[in-house]
Amino acid sequence: MRRLKKYQTGEAAxxxxxxxxxxxxxxxxxxxxxxxxxxxVYPREPKHRRRAQKGSSxxxxxxxxxxxxxxxxxxxxxxxxxxxxxAKKTGRDRAIKDFRNLKRRLALFxxxxxxxxxxxxxxxxxxxxxDLDDCLTLLFLFSTFPSLRLIPRxxxxxxxxxxxxxxxxxxxxxxxxxxxxxxxxxxxxxxxKGQMVxxxxxxxxxxxxxxxAEVDFKVMSIFVEFYTIMLGFVNYRLYHSAGYTYPPExxxxxxxxxxxxxxxxxxxxxxxxxxxxSDLDSKTxxxxxxxxxxxxxxxxxGQNSNREVPREPLVILIRSFGGKVSWDSTVFTGATYAExxxxxxxxxxxxxxxSDKYISRDYIQPQWVFDCVNQRTxxxxxxxxxxxxxxxxxxxxxxxxxxxYIPPEESGTGNESSYNKDGSKSDENILDAxxxxxxxxxxxxxxxAYMEEKLEIEGDGYVQSEDEINPENDEVAPKxxxxxxxxxxxxxxxxxKVHKENKxxxxxxxxxxxxxxxxMVKPRHRNLFRKLIREKQDKEKEKWLLKKKRRIIDGQNKDx
Amino acid sequence: MSSIKKKRVSKKTKSAWxxxxxxxxxxxxxxxxxEERVGSFAEKKDDELFMVDATPLKSKQIILTEKQxxxxxxxxxLRSLEALTNNSKVQDPxxxxxxxxxxxxxxxxxxxxxxxxxxxxFQANKDRERYYESLEKKLKKGxxxxxxxxxxxxxxxxxxxxxxxxxxxxxxxKDLALYVSKNIGxxxxxxxDSIRHRTTKAKKFEAPHGGMSxxxxxxxxxxLLAAVADKEEKIIKEENHLKRVTTQMFSKVTPEERDxxxxxxxRSGLGEEDDGNEKDDATPDGVYKxxxxxxxxxxxxxxxxxxxxxxxxxxxxxxxxxxLKKQTADLNRIKSIKNEVIAEEEQLNDLKKHRKKVELKxxxxxxxLGRLKYAEPxxxxxxxxxxxxxxxxxxxxxxxxxxxxxxxxxRNILPVSVATGKQKSKKVKRFPRSSHKDPxxxxxxxxxxxxVKS
Lengths: 560, 454
Known about the structure:
Distance between the termini of chain A: 92 Å
Largest interface: A-B, 85 and 67 residues
Shape of chain A: extended
Helix content of chain A: 40-55%
Order of helices and strands of chain B: HHHHHHHHHHHHHHH
Radius of gyration of chain B: 58 Å
Strand content of chain A: 5-15%
Largest sheet of chain A: 4 strands, parallel
Oligomer: heterodimer
Structural class of chain B: mainly alpha
């Protein structure tokens, strides 16, 4: 048995430095970086740096040795090594001016095939959807870039195409749940196959070049390369699950002279939006089903956007809830109907004053659409008229039932939505009897009502099961029928009594419950329990303080 | 008078006349006859007699450059193969033995392409056509995308790809199938789970604070402003603290003041002004006494060594006695010792707990992957002046790309690195070898030129 030397086992054998990994894989640093990003291998920090780095105390970049050994089996390592050989051969051909062979070699450029890596990193479809956030944000961002030195032209075109396809799917599946306009961009949250996917769409500003010190473009470009392929596959699967062909045929055709199209950014953008405005071709011609959850725009409503309004997010939102959009055809392409059309119900304007107005339309500011989406109803448009100071645009990502302070604007406007939510919930979940902790008057009444219903149904169910067990159905049956008849007779609608709530009694009951709970906590959990209670008390105190402040401010305002 | 007397030869007889040399006379007479015939030299003109010679005196000396000379030499047969050549003038008796084949008649490919005669020429032409077609197809781009549309997540068995592995009767077990596929080259590689382990609790998307809306409510915006102000205050406080304990510890003086102080300090020993006071401080006796006298190496005597050893032993014995005493005293002190031990144990437990807590907290934080630490980016917020009520005038704060990049660093995906500037490519000095230079002048050539001249 050979003598064991220091740093042969333990942490030193688990970690490997970047330089050692490069030598093991026989790749250059750029190639290694590319491989790691595509495969999803990231550097790690060890628990004890000196042991892991075999005694040296400077800070090196370390990877798990197991990960690097795994990378050795990867077939794209050969493709990356082929690049160097390719460069050598084509360089030689170019130098001795052998253009025939050069052309032949350029056609055989070694391409990276990443399909199997997507399957490896996301074994199931749901895993891929969970990782869609990053993917979408980066692709939306890169689709707005011009071609830079380190970013090939095809990549941004590919990003554009893929994001457009994804948006079409979102529109047709009506899965947008939340929107938020922030200074960074537009936040969207959609519900895809049960997973919440959030992404940011940037505002449309002219591209600002970043310095190399802030961002490493090459690295981001490699991420985008992987994500484009992933999104391609995700799109394929989503389209097939929704019944469309992939790649989709979008009816809008590009104009004849393509050079004009690519001249400036505006025409890019307008092409995109025009494409968004047209429908997808479906595989089977089934009528689309109405989804009952969302009680929003009726389908015949048309809305017209004016010139300065940011069109893309509006188009997405309006179309995904069943409306129709169009714009001034002289300024942008792809308008489906003219400004003078009579059936337009709303017109979205961002200017403070508008000269000529039609009576049949509501002239509103764009924030109305976003707030509607967040509250899932059509809110009244009187606060959003042109020139009016808009109510604040609140963030929907904040939990509306949270225990911290909820300002009156939010609770005032949110009341309807919470009511709707409760109503819909109670309609759907008949057999689910989970009482909510925060009770309002309405809630309680509803609770009482459906508890009674539940008992009835359960009673019936129980009786029915007894029926099946009991072989003598005939004897029992008429008795049950009689019972049911009696119940039916007694089941008449009576005038209800107003249930008066004894607040003091309720409070006392609550306190007693809490005390009992506290007593039932096991001794080893006592510390944790105490901490929780204290936290809760602190939050309540904060909430009360803020309410008081608000009261004082309002009082002062009233006086003034 | 010549000492050697020439013997006079008589010219009486014919034989005598045969012995003497009459060449000059004959010549003279010939010349006379010729003059009579043709005419004397003096009568003739210059043109008839002489002709200007236009031919060069010598053939022009061909001065070869090094290159040319080397090329000529290269055409000659190699010196090392000289031994193999046959230099003898004797011909080979067997004439047909050494048949030197002349230059091979090569095949002319263009002819084959244009006028194919043999079946293999036709085949070659057909193959070339096919090759060019496939090359054109490869050069055309855009087909790749449509081809690659497939469902990656469809259930696939690796056994389908290798013919012969799927068996209805089930005789080929999964292990055997894996082994065979590995040896064929289409190995199925397991992915270990630790590659997917999360090392951070940071979310991909922080839920945006309400104050970041383009039209925020008053409370949200104020709350966000307060948070940002807090952070800034903390930074300022820390800076002030650092300043206080570093730069303010040192007194600041102007250069003149500093020089003056230096002079004063250096001059402090020399008492030029106060002579009276200084003298009193000097030692009264004139003996020179230095503060650090040199050390003498006195050897220890035997007695002193013995005494030293004894002292040492005594001390040792006393220490032993003391230890024994302490032991007996400790027996009385058992209770307090027990308390001490318990206290130490508690301390250790606390330390353990604290360490565990710190470890747990650190487990999901942003790790230190490279040399630089991760710095949180500033929260972007619109100042109250900048808040635009409408979508047209929203002022963007930070770029989304930078935000995503920093988020990757926060989630331990990318290590924090500093941008390397443009690498200065070393300018390689290129120069032609002296042998490959343009025809210049070499010593050899100069020598030959000199020879030609002279």
